[in-house]
Amino acid sequence: MSINEIQSSTDTKMGKSIEALKSSLAKIRTGRASTGLLDHIEVEYYGSPTPLNQVANVTLLDGRTLNVQVWEKNMANIVDKAIRDSDLGLNPQAMGDSIRVPMPALTEERRRDLTKVVRGEGEDTKIAVRNQRRDANEALKRLVKDKEISEDDERRAQDRIQKLTDQYVAEIDKLVAQKEAEIMTV
């Protein structure tokens, strides 16, 4: 493995960590309705767990209400139950083959709790990025030990990996700050 391969691999892995953070932050409810809010919910469809968006169409009715239009009438009760049983604390209202999901207003206390969750997600992602930096630095040390690169090359490569780490940590901080501001906005 060469220095460039180590750096590009580390960059790719760090980028995936950022994408995972964005995905988990999208699931955290802010009081406004978002069609992505129900993406992680799975329903039992002919004996196998299936993502909600493969058995129904999720749309926004207004800023605080989602509409879930099931494609098969017999799925309405199953989808309703899946939304009710999810960890989102939502109370859907079935209306024939469509289900309305109103977003309850967030209390100040719940907003503070959600910001703690967001910070925790950000910290977990930073730990993942730092672990990827450590793995890359260990790979560089192995190259020096095997006499494939010089110590100067190793030091330069470690500096580039550190700059990459700093860049991703700054992006994580920015994403967390944006989500906290979104949550705290009444």
UniProtKB/TrEMBL annotation:
Keywords: Coiled coil, Cytoplasm, Protein biosynthesis
UniProt key word Transcription: no
An individual GO BP term: cytoplasmic translational termination
Domain Ribosome recycling factor span(s) in chain numbering: 21-184
Keyword tRNA processing listed: no
UniProt similarity note: Belongs to the RRF family.
Function statement: Responsible for the release of ribosomes from messenger RNA at the termination of protein biosynthesis. May increase the efficiency of translation by recycling ribosomes from one round of translation to another.
Entry protein name: Ribosome-recycling factor
Organism: Orrella marina
Gene: frr
